[in-house]
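Quick one: structure tokens for this chain, please?
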Amino acid sequence: MKKALMQITAVTAAVAFLTAIGVSFAVSGMELYLQIIILVCALVAVCALGVAASTAVSRRMMKELSMLTSDDTAYAASSMRYEELESIAKKLTEQKARILSQEHIKQEFTANVSHELKTPLTSISGYAEMIATGMAKPDDVSDFAHRIQKEARRLLTLISDIIKLSELDETDKAESMEPVDLKDIVTECSEILYNSAAENDIDINIVGGNCVVQGNHSLLTELVFNLMDNAIRYNRNGGSITVTVGDGVLSVRDTGIGIPSQHFDRIFERFYRVDKSRSKATGGTGLGLAIVKHVAEQHGARISIDSEEGKCTLITINFNESKGATDYE
């Protein structure tokens, strides 16, 4: 599935390149339309691979369960005491619940991915078809090209986040751990996000000194970037974000729209958005905080959230506490 996603990324990049030369759309509209067809076919391949992967996992799990109920196992169980059998039955019940839960998550994720990929593809296909068939007025071609480019970038970001999550799902603990200075990562991310913040007149403030923790530099960069990016996207014009580091703790506070308390336990779910219309307008994928949670869990860090609707949100990552739990305040 990861390979198919990377193929989509390559094709989408080609679409983005074509849109960058909008003047030539009137001549090469059909070529662009063919690119869209290829992209749609790739999407179908991704969905098929996702279903196949889920089916393979289910079959493997069911095979393991059937082995536990084979004649040999049943014979051995006959000589066990009642307490031992009760313990085994409890473990089997728990394992079955985990299998069903994982299967449900995989099916839900596949459905969500299909929907999220379809949305920008539909927009790209629609504008491309109007250009290719000559339905678009000459004065509209440039505008349509920019819209296609915007949706192509959104698609690239979405695919990139999906790949990151699939990689994070492959392990429960971060590898290549080393001393990492969170202050350096925050400074680096603030430079990357400077233009994004400046477009909406949002100030980025960094508070604190050097803060060294044991972790994976690449993953911690993803965590910090997504926290700051999320704080910028859901802020108000003329607002600010304040990133504080020190004593093994990282916190990001914004002056944005806030999060209603009833959404606290769901904001880290994949593709979940508190304000879908705002997310679409800002280009959010709905995967940023899911990535944050995964990285925090792999580092044994604790996440806490404090938010006041319409005023601010504060998300804190404490690397001094284990178990990767999430607190809602």
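DSSP finds ten helices and eight strands in the chain.
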